[in-house]
Inverse folding.
């Protein structure tokens, strides 16, 4: 019996350390997702330097307490946690894309840069473009006036 308790305590410590060191994580309910879809999500997570864990609620609740994270309340139901390492938004986007095809996913909330974000805001953030997309939008906005000016100069030159 003591080995089981030691194992659970080590799992709690491991998950709490992951919560503290990862750039973001998302907790969601996954009831009704079949194994092939979950495997596809895990593979997609690995491609974007993120990972997915299915953890018992008792261990997950204790890990949240140990990491000092409030806001999730007492978790019930089959929950999974997705950790993002390099890109904070990647796990949110992957799970949001899965929720488009599977209506059974329910967001519980997320933590980005050590700040709790509720389920509604998590869904809003997951709809944003990724970092490269945001950079290209910003670059397009910055170059638009210059491009317009150059087109005007070219039009003046063609009329002469």
């Amino acid at each position: 019996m003591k080995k089981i308790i030691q194992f659970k305590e080590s799992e709690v410590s491991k998950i709490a350390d992951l919560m503290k060191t990862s750039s973001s994580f998302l907790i969601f309910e996954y009831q009704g997702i079949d194994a092939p879809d979950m495997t596809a999500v895990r593979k997609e997570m690995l491609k974007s330097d993120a990972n997915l864990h299915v953890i018992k609620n008792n261990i997950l609740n204790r890990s949240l307490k140990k990491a000092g994270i409030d806001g999730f309340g007492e978790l019930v139901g089959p929950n999974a946690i997705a950790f993002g390492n390099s890109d904070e938004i990647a796990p949110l986007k992957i799970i949001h894309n899965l929720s488009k095809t599977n209506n059974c996913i329910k967001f519980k909330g997320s933590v980005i840069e050590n700040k709790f974000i509720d389920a509604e805001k998590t869904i809003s953030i997951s709809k944003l473009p990724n970092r490269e997309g945001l950079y290209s939008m910003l670059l397009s906005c910055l170059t638009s006036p210059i491009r317009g000016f150059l087109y005007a100069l070219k039009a003046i030159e063609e009329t002469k």
